[in-house]
């Protein structure tokens, strides 16, 4: 499938009844845009993004826990891929994670956030595995929020074949500008689509600003508005851009990069 619709959801997921709120967004999206193939929810949307050890521990669950069971039914009902953030408990550790569910309701993979912010490091263990998933829509790469600040991660996802990178977020004010600049740069760096969604609302000193967006392989915003965002993903267009001007991946001097990296690793 070379053309398909992707939707990203933004809302205040720091209240009660997050799963029911997610269901309402899915229902509304499918009524308005019935051809949508993938819906993405923000970072930790199933649990809420609150910097409290009590909250994190009380909301932590296995990847195939209650949130997955609930959303799996909706994925099958609407024949959708669903990506969402949650707090994962695994092997006596807690991770800031995201799941990708297939239209058949299957758990395709779980990504554990690799780059934790200073506010997160005392709450979560850091992930150590890159995740890409091959689907009928193309290859999907997964990252979370602050991961977008690291060009190397997006590059490695692209090297693993990613056509689209999903980046659910909980990005707070006053950092609206870096949120869009980093997302745009990661898309253009690798000539990939990048979809990111954010919270609205907030509590106390932490306030979220929304501004969810879908970026094209040239780094341009192809859809961004105050509510939920939908855009067409065109895999063939991505290939055309790679062959016309945005040819960085084929033009780069990997031979020199490898030499430099070896020197640095040896302390030269």
TrEMBL record:
InterPro entries: Aliph_Amidase/BUP, C-N_Hydrolase, C-N_Hydrolase_sf. The keyword Transferase does not apply. Residues 4-247 form the CN hydrolase domain. Keywords: Hydrolase. Signal peptide: none annotated. It comes from the Bacteria. One of its GO terms (molecular function) is hydrolase activity, acting on carbon-nitrogen (but not peptide) bonds, in linear amides. Pfam families: CN_hydrolase. PANTHER family: NITRILASE C965.09-RELATED (PTHR43674). This is Carbon-nitrogen hydrolase family protein. The lineage of its organism: Bacteria, Bacillati, Bacillota, Bacilli, Bacillales.
